[in-house]
Write a structure and sequence with these properties.
4 helices, 82% helix, rod-shaped, mainly alpha, two-stranded antiparallel ribbon
Length: 117
Amino acid sequence: MLAVFKSRGKTNLVSELYQELLEKDPELRKLEENKDEFNKGHQNYLNAFEGYDGKSREYYRDVNSFVKAIKDSILSNKIELLLLHMKKNISISYPNIEVCRMNSQSIHRQLKIVLLY
């Protein structure tokens, strides 16, 4: 269920104490199981998004190569500005997935610390 992390060759005491709490508290154990289930289900959505995001990046890469082939420099510059604007709007619309993962992990660490206090 919960991996015990190693720190300088020794067992991580916070993880060890949290594991003891999990063994003693059925509600906490259920919360941990729900978190694990959420992460598994959430991963499916992340995989789908990453597939979409990969296609989007591929599209902009291909479009940029097409724009470079346009001989009219004024038209080429206008299209580049349009593409830049489109990419900016897309990046604002979607949160950084890695930041969301790190926030989730941080909240879980905070829970461990607070429960052990």
